Amino acid sequence: MDIPPFTVTLKNPDIPVRIRQYPISLEGRMGLKPEIDRLVSKGLLESCMSPFNTPILPVKKPDGTYRLVHDLREINKRTVARFPVVANPYTLLSNLGPNNCWYSVIDLKDAFWACPLAESSRDYFAFEWEDPETHRRQQLRWTVLPQGFTESPNLFGQALEQILQDYKTRPGVTLVQYVDDLLLAGEREDDVRKESIKLLNFLGLKGLKVSKAKLQFVEEEVKYLGHYLSKGEKRIDPERVKDKWITDSRLLKYEGILLDSPKLTLEVTGLQNPAQFLYGEPDEKELAHNCMTTIEEQTKIRPDLEEEELETGERLFVDGSSQVIEGKRVSGYAIIGGPELEVIESGPLNKTWSAQACELYAVLRALERLKDKEGTIYTDSKYAFGVVHTFGKI
User: Fold this and answer.
1) Cα–Cα distance between 329 and 33 in angstroms, integer?
2) Residue 289 has pLDDT above 80, yes or no
3) Residue 362 maps to which CATH number?
């Protein structure tokens, strides 16, 4: 778009954000190479030597190709955000009249990449890239608004709104804009058709591209902003209210909660899954080992913490409790064992202890009695059982 470049302001810009690139498998780098080469050839990416660096991720599409995802969360945290002026979708749809029976929906493709980024702000959006064929490492940076940047929707929406101020629709046709999604609605099919062609040509002259796969051209029913529009009425897309636990929006919500938690730090492991280096089709030779068997051996709980009792050794039954008797709280524990299942140890505990603490103390005393011996400990406390099997220690 022929608009002034956008400038981004960061808090503490003199302290660069430096995050090393996550390990990417060979398959992932091979999948990203055509996309990165294309972006470089179009001038959307350029080489640089920036003090800033944030990682990228390869995301595989259903068709087998890869999409470049830039992890800009740390940059987003440091960005001085402008006041958002994105309209409410429900307010936009309420402006449509009941006589609108024909619609066109235009989805702009790679819309953010049509907005230039100021030279002074480009270093903030640099990442490291290693070519899988030449093994050359370099830094690349965006020359346009990158996807994943918190300000991109707001900035693009305002820029497009200013451009559309020069566009006038004919009487009887309404134009609705929400970020990069455009809707034309009218009473007559011919008017909507002519207006759709006119708008597509206008957008093309402004340097904007349209997603042909998502284009809904002059139809009586269309899907727009999660609603179906038909004969002047709107209804929510059933997929939005379908009973699904794992949804993109829900996962995004939980991710946002985790990222905003001051007591939680998310770190990316430096270890790599060896399976990601298996490139190509497997041969017909006999496998050296069964991966599932190996995983089970490495991840199963310790043998001494399994729920099956030992065939040999002592058997001890433990219990602990804390309750109020005649207005006073009393706490204690007991251990039962031996051939006659007699009380072999018991005693009072601190009256401030909870029942769970008493149960744990009983297990601890039983473990001390079985030191250097074999034996099975029985407890009716799910809490004590969970602590031992989760942590392997008390």
Assistant:
1) 70
2) no
3) 3.30.420.10
pLDDT at 301 > cutoff 60: no
Q: Which domain holds residue 334?
A: 303-391
Instruction: Report the number of distinct structural domains present in the chain.
Output: 2
Backbone angles phi, psi at 210, to 5 degrees: -115, 140
Give me the DSSP letters along 236-259: E-HHHHS--SS-HHHHHHHHHHHH
pLDDT digits (tens, 9 = 90+) for 115-158: 999 999 999 999 999 999 999 999 999 999 999 999 998 898 88
Three-state DSSP at 60 gives strand
**Residue 10, in any domain of the structure:** no
Same structural domain for residues 185 and 317? no
Contact 66, 58 (CB under 8 A): yes
- Rounded Cα–Cα distance for residues 222 and 133 (Å): 45
CB 100 within 8 A of CB 191: no
Does residue 59 fall inside a structural domain? Answer: yes
State the DSSP code for 270: S
Q: Say whether both 121 and 47 belong to one domain.
A: yes
Torsion of CA 140, 143, 149, 150, to 10 degrees: 150
Reported as a pLDDT band with limits 50, 70 and 90, residue 22 is confident
Confidence (pLDDT) at 365: 93
